[in-house]
Amino acid sequence: MTEQSNDHSLVGRFNNGDESAFNELVRKYQQRIYWHARRMTGNHFDADEIVQEVLLVMYKKLKDFKFRSSLYTWIYTITSTRSINLLRRRSVKEIFSLSDSEADKAADSDIIKNLENKEEVKRLEKHLQKIPVKQREVFVLRTIDGLSYEEISEITGKSVGGLKSNYFHALKKITAQMQNEE
Amino acid sequence: MKNEDKIRKYIEGELSGEELINFKKEINNLPKLKREIDSLRNALNQFEKLKNVNADENYFTYILPHFREGTSKQKQLKLKPSFALGSILLVLIALIVFFITTNKEEVIKDEQITLQQLDNEELKTYLNNYSQDLTTSQLTENIPEEYDSLFNSMIADELSLNGYSDEYLVDITSNEFYNILEELSDEEIENIYNSLITERF
Question: Residue A58's Cα: distance from chain center in Å?
Fold first, then answer.
């Protein structure tokens, strides 16, 4: 069974009232949701919040999903949108000095296992956080999630040509930041 | 094709055939271009580390139960707004009823002002407004002596109005008038009062 047909089956079962089908979908996509949210927001605390929000949207809206795109494209769209919304809220709070103290407290709570790994991940996440959100989105989806420009175009609603340009600018900025680091 | 686009295509492996051969020659001939491409590739390679991060799997086993817990709490929360609204309405209704009933008591209290507290003018006004509700016993029993002259005047006036004044007119300050009053029985007095109240008010 292909991934697409498996997703079809699970969504169909869930829409017919089978809650265990939704649980299977969660287990299948939760890591992708979490890591994409983590790369967009830059920390575990926000990524955890996004995961719960995305699952709630999926739970409520799966009945309306018509498979015009693949399920994982749809899930990525929700994750990206929620992440960008959270980043906007965060920047407004920062302007008015209403920073999220919970996120600050939770800075040490992380799921990355060894210390060396954690430091390296944090370093790279910092570089991602320094580039504009729209560039970050396409860079993460292309470089780390390995999606094609056509798939990214479905997720973001942007043209392939625009995405390629955004991607290259993001790469140049990150490269310059890393060179300044050295 | 712009150089930036060529660089991106080269890095992402989209160049092929003659285009690829020509660009490789260009890179070899231009050290600055080579350094730029090497830096870009180096940065990209570092992000490969983010593809397979060694993370605590226990976190992912907790995601689904946390979600299920959240959805069941949301269902409970849906009841709370309607409960709160209902409570507020009940309190408002109770306040309105309380307000109305306390005002009514004040109205009743007004009616219970003793006649001792009224002067002649006030008593006349009071009798005008409330005599329909009051029994004659209330009118007669509660009248103190100092108000006796008022009722005597009322009786005298009544006699005048009946057109019998020529025959029955008496000086209300004279003893003869009080003698007439003393000869009347309680029943007759009560009937006079009732007729006075009925005709006058």
Answer: 15
Nearest CB to A113: which of B44, B51, B55? B55
**Which pTM does this prediction carry?**
0.65
Give the phi and the psi of residue B172 in degrees, each rounded to 5. -70, -15
Rg of chain B over Cα atoms, rounded to whole angstroms, equals 53
Instruction: Give the one of A51, A143, A167 whose C-beta lies nearest to B47's C-beta.
Output: A143
- The pLDDT tens digits of the residues spanning A9-46 come to 999 999 999 999 999 999 999 999 999 999 999 999 99
- pLDDT classification of B137: cutoffs 50, 70, 90: very low
Using an 8 Å CB-CB cutoff, list chain B residues near A27: 64
Residues of A with CB under 8 A from a CB of B: 23, 26-27, 30-31, 34-35, 39, 51-52, 55-56, 59, 111-114, 117, 120-121, 124, 143-144, 146, 164, 167-168, 171-172, 174-175, 178-179
pLDDT tens, B19-34?
999 999 999 999 999 9
CB pair distance less than 8 Å for B60 and A117:
no
Q: Check residues B144 and A31 and name the one with the higher pLDDT.
A: A31
Pick B56's closest partner by Cβ from A56, A113, A167: A113
Say which DSSP state A111 is in.
-
